[in-house]
Design a protein that fits this description.
Elements (H helix, E strand, L loop, with lengths): L9 H16 L1 H7 L6 E5 L6 H11 L6 E4 H4 L6 H20 L6 E6 L13 H19 L7 E7 L17 E4 L5 H11 L1 H5 L5 H11 L12 H21 L12 H10 L4
Parallel strand pairs: 1-4, 1-5, 2-3, 3-4
Helix pairs in contact: 1-2, 5-6, 7-9, 7-10, 9-11, 10-11
This protein binds adenosine-5'-triphosphate (ATP).
The site of adenosine-5'-triphosphate has 20 residues, from helix 3, helix 7 and helix 10.
Protein name: Vesicle-fusing ATPase
Subcellular location: Cytoplasm
Organism: Stephanodiscus triporus
């Protein structure tokens, strides 16, 4: 399985390949072994470490329809019944397709970002929101494993606060594959930097000294310079270095047609501009 845009997270990717992808890659073997498709996944961890990215890659690898990504807080609504309606609507495209073509339906991923906003432990919220959120949790449970649950849906919940979630959602048959997506370690940082400079390398837009410095930043004992950087911050570092290179190309009047190139000095300036949160 080729998660080519996700750096680090090898153990998590292995888990996903075995527990989520395999049954869909070989349904006949899965049936023989009595392994059913996973219906839900929970990815938790600090911001910017690749939860959304991983969910999107998963969708691509599964050949799913363009995933629906919804933000938990956006679903909440002060009008009674409105939030549940929104949750129900998320499942509609999959329901329609399943009605039409049955098991020939493509897979539909429903990605619930900031899931803790709508799926907190029932009864744990202040009076004004408790009712709404409890019924959203109930609606989600009904959709994930109710009588009319669909085999062509995979729900992916994302959260920074997994401890707030209603435990009923995490039982087997529901969001049963739960993975932590943490800040990258040294190797992860090297992989992430490589991913985000891949196209620059291909286009010959990285100078020799920049390539050396990139290796240093992650590989040769100087990893500390990017320690505590999230994947998003490493991507930001590369973007910042590129912007310095571009500004230089513009300033020196090379302008149109000139090849900008990222040098080590651009990365050094970027390291001053982009700091880990
Ligand atoms: P949040 O909790 O804030 O929603 P998140 O964990 O979902 O954060 P993403 O939105 O997936 O983080 O990450 C933002 C961007 O940072 C990605 O689109 C990607 O460019 C980069 N990025 C983050 N983690 C990784 C990673 N492990 N490998 C490669 N790129 C990454």
């Amino acid at each position: 399985m080729d998660f080519k845009n996700v750096g680090g997270l090898d153990a998590q990717l292995d888990d996903i390949a075995r527990r989520v992808l395999a049954s869909r890659a070989n349904p006949a073997a899965a049936r023989r072994l009595g392994v059913s498709h996973v219906r839900g996944i929970l990815l938790s961890g600090p911001p910017g470490c690749g939860k959304t990215l991983l969910a999107r890659e998963l969708s691509r690898l599964l050949g799913a329809r363009e995933p629906q990504i919804v933000n938990g807080p956006e679903i909440l609504d002060k009008f009674i019944g409105e939030a549940e309606r929104r949750v129900r609507e998320l499942f509609l495209p999959a329901e329609r397709e399943y009605e039409e073509v049955g098991d020939a339906s493509a897979l539909h991923l429903i990605i619930l970002d900031e899931m803790d906003a709508i799926a907190r432990k029932r009864g744990s919220m202040s009076a004004d929101t408790t009712g709404v959120r409890d019924s959203v949790v109930n609606q989600l449970l009904a959709k994930i494993d109710g009588v009319k649950s669909l085999p062509n849906v995979l729900v992916v919940g994302l959260t920074n606060r997994p401890e707030l979630l209603d435990p009923a959602l995490l039982r087997p048959g529901r969001l049963e594959v739960q993975l932590r997506v943490e800040l990258p370690d040294k190797r992860g940082r090297r992989d992430i930097l490589a991913i985000h400079t891949r196209s620059m390398r291909e286009k010959n837009a990285l100078s020799e000294d920049a390539i050396d410095l990139l290796d240093d930043l992650s590989d040769r004992g100087m990893g500390a310079r990017t320690e505590h950087f999230s994947g998003a911050e490493l991507a930001g570092l590369v973007r910042s270095a590129a912007s310095f290179a571009l500004a230089r190309a513009v300033e020196t009047g090379l302008g149109a047609g000139a090849d900008g190139m990222v040098a080590a000095a651009d990365l050094e300036r970027a390291l001053k501009e982009v700091r880990p949160a």
